[in-house]
Design goal:
Blueprint (H helix, E strand, L loop, with lengths): L1 H10 L37 E16 L2 E3 L5 H6 L20 E3 L6 E10 L2 E6 L3 E18 L1 H9 L17 E20 L3 E31 L7 E15 L21 E15 L7 E18 L4 E13 L9 H12 L10 E5 L3 E11 L2 E10 L13 E9 L3 E4 L2 E4 L2 E4 L1 E5 L2 E5 L2 H5 L10 E13 L4
Antiparallel strand pairs: 1-4, 1-5, 1-22, 2-3, 4-6, 5-6, 6-7, 7-8, 8-9, 8-10, 9-12, 10-11, 11-13, 11-14, 14-15, 15-16, 16-17, 16-18, 17-20, 18-19, 20-21, 21-22
């Protein structure tokens, strides 16, 4: 039960809506405005807008390669609490059984990622034909489990009540859990270093100041455990940890004074984390022979989310080296806990970790990634976009990891309207998305089946995704 509570507790950090900067139906478009900056800061020079003011945009995302969602109602119904009455309990709570998450066994280590990405007021301006500047605000919350064994996740999924898991020794389960919630303010600058009627080569950079609000990690170096029945008490079970060698770190900033997460943390001097980040990008356009203001081909390459956040506070930061044997964990240990920070405190106390062994600092890396993009204008407003996002963080790093993906997105767009159909391979799973844009306002998903899929319609998705944005913009005047 240690891992079930820890895992779901850590996910509480991202549940306010449900690493990342996908928005694949919008971000690669020259009508993406500030949303394109997160994919490649050089794309500021390719914007069709002379002025773009993002009022608010957001993305909520979940993906994994361990389970399929197979409840008799959709994830959208679960989130909105609109499910048939037969799946509600007497107090109105929604019934959710372990078997609603079907395992995908193949013997390989598993990963699970959830994030929310809230983009606050942000501005993009084109200054003449050769320079563009941007100012952006953003709040990101991410939780990940990586390199976890199937046997360990089976305990997480089923809890301690499944007697098929009893007294089966599990050794050397190496996995990592990382969470990070932070605010950022970014300054972007892009310019054309080669520009004529036939081609344009642009370079862009975004520098980010980061405010770390809360974070946590559990880096497991060696674990041996068994699930056992309590012979002294009927229907009680516990997790027997025979050996545990790990590093544990977390913050208690939100727990103190019941603080909430918001963009106001950008200006809160009490935040336990500080850091810097950067995006670097290049963009090349081969311009259309018929219209030099439109490209026939655009290529982009960027390094995104370089940097890290250093959490350091004697009051709010905990970090311990764990090396213990013969520990027991039961469900009762966590009955009164609320949120991941309280769960981490219980684990610390159960493991006998004292303040004397607390180093009170750790560094959490950003989801550094390689972003490669190719956009081809087929004709009559039709485009075909290919996007590659490749994680560059080591699997055992104390850092958030950008899930690697490859996507192809056909789209139709004009200055007033756009529709895209992203087709994406992520975590060995194929996803179909869709998005619609009216002027600078957009709504979309990179995983449509994840929103509507259930056991009832035989669509059993491995994740879900939804995003939307509201902005004001004016088109750039042609030269």
């Amino acid at each position: 039960m240690l891992f079930r509570w820890l895992y779901f507790g850590l996910l509480c950090l991202i549940i306010p809506l449900a690493s990342a900067q996908n928005l694949l139906g919008v971000s690669a478009s020259p009508y993406g405005g500030t949303q394109s900056l997160y994919l490649n800061p050089a794309f500021a020079m390719d914007s069709k807008y002379g002025f773009y003011l993002n009022l608010a945009a957001g993305d909520a995302h979940l993906n994994n390669d361990y389970f399929r969602y197979q409840a008799p109602y959709s994830l959208a119904g679960l989130v909105l609490k609109r499910v048939p009455d037969q799946y509600k309990l007497s107090d109105g709570a929604i019934l959710f059984r372990p078997e609603y998450l079907g395992e995908v066994p193949n013997g390989e280590p598993k990963s699970i990622t959830g994030w929310t990405d809230l983009r606050g007021p942000s501005l993009l301006l084109r200054l003449g034909q050769g320079v563009a500047v941007g100012l952006s605000t953003r709040l990101r919350a991410v939780a990940q489990v990586s390199n976890a064994s199937e046997s360990l996740l089976s305990v997480v999924r089923a809890g301690l009540e499944d007697d098929r898991l009893y007294n089966i020794p599990n050794r050397d389960n190496q996995f990592a859990i990382n969470t990070n919630t932070y605010a950022e303010i970014g300054l972007s600058l892009a310019g054309a270093i080669l520009q004529d009627d036939y081609q344009q080569l642009s370079v862009g950079i975004t520098v980010k100041r980061l405010q770390g609000i809360t974070a946590g990690f559990l880096k497991n170096n060696g674990l041996s455990y068994r699930v056992l029945a309590d012979t002294a008490s009927t229907d009680n079970y516990y997790l027997q940890v025979d050996q545990f060698n790990a590093e544990l770190g977390y913050t208690t900033y939100l727990q103190d004074r019941n603080r909430s997460v918001s963009l106001r943390q950008l200006f809160d001097g009490n935040n336990p984390g500080r850091g810097w980040g950067a995006d670097l990008g290049l963009s090349y356009q081969l311009k259309s022979a018929d219209d030099p203001d439109r490209y026939a081909l655009r290529l982009g390459i960027a390094l995104t989310d370089l940097g890290s956040i250093r959490y350091r506070s004697d009051q709010y930061v905990q970090r311990y080296a764990v090396n213990t044997t013969g520990q027991q964990f039961t469900a009762d240990d966590f009955k009164e806990t609320k949120g991941s920070e309280e769960i981490a405190d219980v684990i610390r106390d159960k493991l006998g970790l004292t303040e004397a062994s607390n180093t009170a600092r750790f560094t959490s890396g950003l989801p550094t990634a390689l972003s490669v993009n190719a956009d081809v204008h087929i004709g009559s407003g039709f485009y075909l976009t290919g996007t590659l996002l490749q994680n560059l963080r080591a699997k055992d790093a104390i850092a958030i990891h950008q899930p690697s993906l490859i996507s192809v997105s056909p789209r139709l767009e004009t200055s007033t309207f756009g529709v895209a159909l992203p087709l994406t391979l992520l975590n060995n799973s194929f996803m179909v998305g869709t998005s619609i844009r009216v002027g600078p306002v957009f709504l979309g998903t990179d995983n449509l089946f994840g929103m509507i899929g259930s056991n009832s319609n035989n669509l059993r998705p491995r994740g879900a995704d939804i995003y939307a944005g509201l902005a004001l913009a004016s088109l750039r005047r042609k030269p």
